[in-house]
Amino acid sequence: MEFKDKLAVLRRERGLSQEALAEFIGISRQAVAKWELGQGYPDIDNLIKLSNTLKISVDRLIKEEENDYFLANIMKDNTNTEEIIEFLLKAKTSTYAAYGPKEAPSRPQSQDLHYSDGDYLYIDSYLGAEQFGGEEAVWYQGKPVWCINYTGRLLGENFSGDFLKDALRHVTKEAPYRGPALYQDGDYTYHCYSTGSFEWFQGHEEIYCRSVKIYELFFHGGKLR
């Protein structure tokens, strides 16, 4: 497998867009696109950064091999990653963000929401109200494959749960953790920042009302093995 193909496979497996990978490396998205098209090649400094970001040795990244068992498994796993993300987007926009029905509490006074589709199951379970914490997780054929833990709090009287739900319905495939990087409606502004990839990430979200911060939440998570 050539470098350009390995790079595309590894980037997608980590859940990174070309823009996100470029930001990690400190280059332009166009440079990443050219590398994946075979129209350019990174210098040694960028190869080291790619190695660290994609969690693969420089030697294995640049060496061409006809039968690379490691990358073959990554390509197989990448399909599973894309399936998980597609399912997760449907689950997130069908439960809390969509005022979905609550399930029976799994723990004392917990709020639980479920969503299933074929072999996949999603559960969001949280505790508290004005200051709260919880976990979202995905199972595939009964096996847990991904989770996110979060804790948040209200900071002002003007908090709008309707606005938060509206923002969360705009979750993106590139960062399928909470809401979009920026969402605005009237006096309210939502921000979400994250680092890492679908395999291992962390971040936080905030809501401002007329430039006053009224809500914050921190999250982290990744794939389970």
From TrEMBL:
This is Helix-turn-helix transcriptional regulator. The lineage of its organism: Bacteria, Bacillati, Bacillota, Clostridia, Lachnospirales. It comes from Variimorphobacter saccharofermentans. Keywords: DNA-binding. PANTHER family: HTH-TYPE TRANSCRIPTIONAL REGULATOR XRE, TRACRIPTIONAL REGULATORY PROTEIN-RELATED-RELATED. InterPro entries: Cro/C1-type_HTH, DUF5680, Lambda_DNA-bd_dom_sf. One of its GO terms (molecular function) is DNA binding. It comes from the Bacteria. Residues 7-61 form the HTH cro/C1-type domain.
